[in-house]
Amino acid sequence: MNNRLNEILDVHRDNQDAESQTEHAYGLIEEMIVTLELPPGASVSEATLSARTGIGRTPVRMALKRLEHQGLITSLPRKGVFIRQLNVEDQLAILEVRRPVERMLAMKAARLATKPQRDSLRFCVDCLVQAAIAGDVHRYLHFDQECDRIIYATSRNAFATDFVSQLYTHSRRFWVAHSQATDWVRIAHLHSDMMNAVADGDEERAASGLEALLDYLEGACREVLGLA
């Protein structure tokens, strides 16, 4: 009986370790894609990514499947795996979809956040603004993600957060690709207005802050497309 129980516990631990390794591989590869360390159109393989991340090929393979489902990579028969090209028009469609979901998440977070979550949000958004002022895009993106994670945890809707987190990755990659033409300080202050409204528990101000942020991003996107 004890031997059988130990076997079951060993399998459970192995599965947890495998999931942890896959999650770690996914995070590292996603970061490389978003920051353009793996540029659009680049060819990648399990072997090279395993060597670059220091993670075994099986977790890397599982991470690549997740990234393909997310639309960040493309697998072509007999040709290999490639980082998906940027499509500027996609950004307008992504912003259109983000708007109602993010509005709901922001308002729920404003209503449900605990004091530690509100304090963490204020800290992260202050760091985000300082990173933008310093021109440190990678640090900005780090704290942008931290803000998002707090919103996800606070809003308590896993279906919505799983959905919108995939869209965020595409958006971040787009803005990194166009970073020279991006007013990071303006975007950071708009983020700050919205996130601080969430931290203050003001649902309506959080919603209007989100609308102002997405309006600005849509306008900037249209400028890139030459539609402004």
Task: Sum up the structure in keywords.
globular, Four Helix Bundle (Hemerythrin (Met), subunit A), Arc Repressor Mutant, subunit A, 2 domains, mainly alpha, 228 residues, three-stranded antiparallel beta sheet
Q: How far apart, in Å, are the first and last alpha carbons? A: 71 Å
Number of strands: 3
Determine the fraction of residues in helical runs and give it as a percent range.
over 70%
Mean model confidence by pLDDT:
88
CATH class of the largest domain: Mainly Alpha
Strand content: under 5%
What CATH architecture of the largest domain do you see? Up-down Bundle
Q: What's the alpha carbon Rg, rounded to whole Å? A: 20 Å
What summary fits the major beta sheet? 3 strands, antiparallel
What's the overall geometry? globular
Fold-level CATH name of the largest domain: Four Helix Bundle (Hemerythrin (Met), subunit A)
Given helix and strand content, the structural type is mainly alpha
